[in-house]
Write a structure and sequence with these properties.
This protein has helices at residues 22-35, 47-50, 57-73, 91-100, 105-109, 112-120, 127-142, 155-172, 217-226, 242-255, 259-265, 271-297, 300-329, and strands spanning 9-14, 40-45, 81-85, 147-149, 180-182. By secondary structure, the protein is mainly alpha-helical. It binds adenosine-5'-tetraphosphate. Adenosine-5'-tetraphosphate (AQP) binds at residues 14-15, 17-18, 21, 23-24, 27-28, 46, 150-151, 153-154, 188-190, 199-203. Adenosine-5'-tetraphosphate is lined by residues 14-15, 17-18, 21, 23-24, 27-28, 46, 150-151, 153-154, 188-190, 199-203.
Length: 335
């Protein structure tokens, strides 16, 4: 596989820590599908990351397979991309330990996601939550990925992965490709419908704050109708009015129109009309995907087959990297 591949390699993942949102779709999955012809793509379901927050085991199992089905339903082709579950490739945790020994406590203390999640889960500030960015660096560096398509919320983690790679390369000789974040500006940050200063998140306890990829049309329209805006009642991509700014951004991402085109289309119309229009285009964009998801999840054997094949391909690359790393740090390999 590796010898003949000349395209740049992409790695990305989503945690099966809840129902995937429109943020996950526009910030990640939709872009992944667009990249599959140009790049060699490796897409992982990050179940190891998910347990940094308490998960109900049966739910986690179900959500892991559902997440894979959503990748496929978003148009990512198993003939073109590699799919696997993170826990099926033990090299992620093996590399994570070595990288953890090359990461500073101070670096991890500065991660904003750690600070946010420690506040949200004050009763469970576990060591995994703290070392999460090291595991994420291992995910990426294991596959010698060139690019990592993510939303802008993950930029800080990618920068840390770059720092760790450079530090290791400097200390032990070139070993890792230094990855770059691939962030599409338009869809980089989809915000909560209830608190538009915060990102839309699958673990938000307020279900009205997020559109889920599997939400029914009525729910989608109802949630957009209730979305927090302001009293100015003028549809504009104005960052000082985060609620309407977010809705214009969502509409533009879904229709492919620029913000200016969206503003012109709704000139003179109130928020009510606009919110329904956003709901309609969102429901339309998700309906085909939802039908495909329903079809795929009926065929567990097919999904398991895709995972088996993907695990084999991913493991081949992962084993090579870990064996190189173990040799370089001085672990005795035997005669
Ligand atoms: N609101 C968002 N806007 C744009 N992109 C987003 N992503 C997540 N939310 C948005 C992108 O989705 C990918 C996978 O994210 P993840 O599941 O690994 O973790 P996350 O970023 O922590 O996502 P959530 O939904 O907020 O999960 P929970 O609530 O479990 O922590 C990443 O590429 C991310 O940028």
């Amino acid at each position: 596989m590796e010898q003949t591949e000349t395209r740049k390699r992409i790695f990305s993942a989503v945690q099966p820590s809840g129902n995937l949102t429109l943020g996950n779709y526009l910030g990640a999955l939709k872009n992944w599908a667009d990249l599959q012809d140009e790049f060699e793509c490796i897409y992982c379901v990050a179940d190891l990351h998910a347990i940094t927050v308490r998960q109900e085991p049966a739910e986690l199992r179900k959500k892991s397979l559902d997440t894979l089905a959503l990748y496929l339903a978003s148009g990512i082709d198993p003939q073109k991309a590699t799919f696997f579950l993170q826990s099926h490739v033990p090299e992620h945790t093996q590399l994570s330990w070595v990288l953890g020994c090359n990461t500073m406590f101070g670096e991890l203390s500065r991660m904003t996601q750690f600070k946010d999640k420690s506040q949200k889960h004050a009763d469970n500030i576990n060591a995994g939550l703290f070392t999460y960015p090291v595991l994420m660096a291992a995910d990426i560096l294991l596959y010698q990925a060139d690019l990592v398509p993510v939303g802008s919320d993950q930029k800080q983690h990618i920068e840390l992965a770059r720092d760790i790679a450079q530090r290791f390369n400097g200390a032990y000789s070139p070993t890792f490709t230094v990855p770059e974040a691939y962030i599409l500006k338009s869809s980089a940050r989809i915000m909560s419908l209830a608190e538009p200063e915060r990102k839309m998140s699958k673990s938000d306890p307020n279900v009205n704050a997020s559109i889920f990829m599997l939400d029914k049309k009525d729910d989608i329209i109802r949630k957009f109708k209730r979305a927090v805006t302001d009293s100015e009642a003028r549809v504009a991509a104005d960052p000082t009015r985060p609620g309407i700014y977010n809705l214009v951004n969502i509409y533009s991402c879904l229709t492919g129109k620029t913000s200016e085109e969206t503003e012109r289309e709704f000139e003179g119309k109130g928020y009510g009309d606009f919110k329904v229009a956003v709901g309609e285009v969102c429901a339309d964009a998700l309906s085909g995907l939802q039908a495909e998801f329903a079809r795929l999840t009926k065929d567990k054997g097919y999904l398991d087959g895709i995972l088996r094949e993907g695990t084999e391909k991913a493991s081949y690359i992962a084993r090579k990297t870990v064996s190189k790393v173990y040799r370089k740090v001085g672990f005795y390999q035997g005669k």
